[in-house]
Design a protein that fits this description.
Low-confidence stretches: none
Helix content: 25-40%
Shape: globular
Mean pLDDT: 96
Bound molecules: flavin-adenine dinucleotide
Number of strands: 21
């Protein structure tokens, strides 16, 4: 876009939206802070930073009138680089970030779509409340919630969407809609796992739980036989206390550095005796090199991602195992032994599994484990390196079922479709057709509108 065109765009956008939202073009202060995200750098023609739903609606009407393609951004943690774009308009919801306790008795709390989970945890802490979300403080409320939300209390309280009571959404034509179990129930179903396909979420009403301190930290093992350790972890989790959620992190050996196995643990209760009992068998699973588990406020356990060293990119894939049987353990062990991929196995089950498969668009309720692989790819990537990494992932994917869009590093339509069970995808496509038939919200893990 020429400077003149950029100026024209700025002036017409300011006229249309400027009274209720900040409008930025390349070169403006603050532009780069929206155009760049964790996994991608963009060059949008226009950035709109609304203060409220009215600003979002005005931005969407302006986009419709000018034909600008729309990208929506909240926390900017999309692993597929979907937080930004090389053209069009970005609607950055981070100014809509209030956290308001609506009803202390029931724990109902209204959270702005642009808040981060770290800010939510900090705001709820003085009330002795908390919400199960993810593991990272800077992740956005909108992106994580719309994908499902698998966090440190997933076995105790379910997914983030399992605490969701209602959502406020602005549709492509600028209408503000409230969706819950009664009003726009089809949309409410789709928002809980179907991603950013249906409109711009501006707020979410959650039911927070009594949460104060938890037992949190890592056990680092001196692991010899990794497949045996994975199988041992699986057996213990099957019999384990639901208050305990764990992630087994497997680091490959690298030149000059041996591989490593750590178990990140969250026992979602301040009860010391309960935590000690639940954790005891995990401390005996293999020789322990270090153990950092301690009691701490839930609001302090969410961490930020350490940025990757320059010149490296992370390519992420994941799938769900209904049963982590020995064949699947072996496939994970082989992928690790081949090098180049950091793997994590997240325990599921508990409260997340008690929600029926068709109650939300996140349908992987019967999964015992989510396995995720992060391939580190130098930039620019040596020819053939990415296809080779994906080839190495495919035997594990073939044993899995679907994928979690939150951890899906690809926006390829086939990968998005494969993330959902076919019946779930069909239902999502029908809701998409109803709320966004023109596919305005396509710059996301895109569900294609059903044909009539
Ligand atoms: C370091 C790291 C740790 C993570 N840990 C966890 C975890 O523990 N558990 C978990 O479940 N997930 C986790 N995730 C995945 C995370 O949930 C997804 O990447 C999520 O989409 C990020 O949301 P965001 O708002 O930060 O990102 P964004 O990049 O801003 O948005 C992500 C997607 O949602 C869309 N979107 C954003 N805002 C809106 C909105 N207001 N309305 C409609 N659509 C919108 C965007 O267009 C984009 O497609 C992690 C990701 C990272 C990078």
């Amino acid at each position: 876009m020429t400077q003149l065109a950029s100026n024209e765009l700025l002036s017409s956008a300011l006229t249309a939206v400027g009274a209720i939202a900040e409008v930025l073009v390349p070169g403006d202060d603050g532009y780069a802070g929206t155009a760049s995200a964790l996994f991608a750098d963009g060059t949008p023609d226009l950035v709109i930073r609304p203060h409220d739903a009215a600003g979002v609606a005005a931005a969407l009407r302006y986009a419709a009138g000018t034909g600008l393609a729309v990208t929506v951004r909240s926390g900017g943690h999309s692993m597929a680089g979907l937080s930004t774009s090389t053209d069009g308009m970005i609607i950055d919801t981070r100014r809509i970030s209030g956290v308001r306790l609506l009803d202390p008795a029931s724990g109902r709390v209204r959270v702005g779509a642009g808040a981060t989970w770290g800010a939510v945890a900090a705001a709820l802490r003085p009330h002795g409340l908390g919400l199960t979300a993810g593991d990272t403080s800077g992740v956005g409320v909108a992106g994580l919630t719309l994908g499902g939300g698998i966090g440190w209390m997933v076995r105790r309280y379910g997914l983030a969407i399992d605490s969701l009571a209602a959502a406020q959404v602005v549709t492509a034509d600028g209408r503000l809609i409230g969706a819950d179990a009664v009003e726009h129930a089809d949309l409410f179903w789709a928002l809980r796992g179907g991603g950013g396909n249906f409109g711009v979420a501006t707020g979410f009403d959650f039911t927070a739980r009594p949460v104060t301190s938890v037992h949190f930290g890592e056990i680092s093992y001196q692991a010899g036989d990794v497949p045996r350790l994975i199988a041992g972890w699986r057996d213990l989790m099957r019999a384990g206390d639901e208050k305990l959620t764990t992630t087994l992190n497997l680091m490959p050996a690298m030149p000059g550095r041996p591989g490593g196995v750590t178990l990140a643990c969250c026992y979602a209760s301040p009860d010391g005796a309960g935590a000690a009992q639940a954790l005891r068998p995990f401390r005996a699973l293999a020789p322990v090199a270090s153990d950092s588990i301690r009691v701490m406020p839930y609001a302090e356990i969410l961490e930020d991602m350490t940025p990757l060293p320059p010149g490296l990119r992370m390519e992420l894939r994941n799938t769900f195992f209904t049963t982590l049987d020995d064949a699947r353990v072996a496939a994970v062990g082989e992928l690790l032994a081949g090098g180049g991929a950091a793997l994590s196995l997240r325990s599921l089950g508990g409260a997340a599994a008690r929600v029926s498969r068709d109650a939300t668009a996140f349908a992987h309720r019967d999964a015992e484990v989510m396995v995720a692989a992060a391939f580190l790819i130098p930039q620019p990537a040596p020819p053939g390196m990415l296809p080779e990494a994906l080839n190495r992932w495919s035997p594990v994917a073939a044993l899995g079922s679907g994928a979690y869009v939150g951890f899906l590093g690809s926006a390829d339509p086939a990968d998005v479709a494969a993330a959902y069970p076919p019946a779930t995808y069909r239902r999502l496509a029908a809701v998409k057709r109803r709320y966004d038939p023109a596919n305005v919200f396509r710059r996301t893990h895109n569900i294609l509108p059903a044909r009539s």
